[in-house]
Design a protein that fits this description.
mainly beta, single chain, two-stranded antiparallel ribbon, EB domain-containing protein
């Protein structure tokens, strides 16, 4: 849903990021009911991007270099199965880090917002079916 501020986002546990309402980091977007949930029994077929952020210290598998787009990293996540629920992608280096955890499952200090403009990361989380 398009937005200019988080108060325009009707879903509980959502925020306006890049002019779009999305679930807060760590919450799964449920493709079935359109809401933000904490527990996902069946992973979905898409992902949500959280620009300029990453999870620190929770990478299970790393691929470097890997393709040119985050979609290449998501395809790797799908290839390795449903245990992987998120990934970090470093643009430029084309580095892909698969994770078995979400931002809600780790210490809040491990979810890092990147402020340096020459250090371009995005955190991605799989949706829920």
């Amino acid at each position: 849903m398009p937005c200019t501020s988080s108060d325009q986002c009707p879903m509980k546990h959502s925020a306006c990021i890049n002019d779009r309402c999305i679930c807060n980091p760590g919450y799964f977007y449920s493709e079935t009911n359109g809401g933000c949930i904490t527990d996902c029994k069946k992973p979905g077929s898409d992902y949500v991007e959280y620009p300029q952020s990453k999870l620190v210290g929770h990478t299970s598998l790393t691929f470097y270099p890997l393709g040119t787009e985050p979609e290449d990293c998501f395809n790797k996540l799908l290839e390795y199965g449903s245990r992987f629920v998120s990934f970090d992608y470093r643009f430029g280096l084309k580095a892909c880090m698969l994770q078995e955890v979400t931002a809600l499952m780790v210490d809040p200090a491990d979810y890092e917002i990147i402020t340096a403009t020459n250090y371009v990361w995005s955190h991605f989380q799989r949706t829920c079916a």
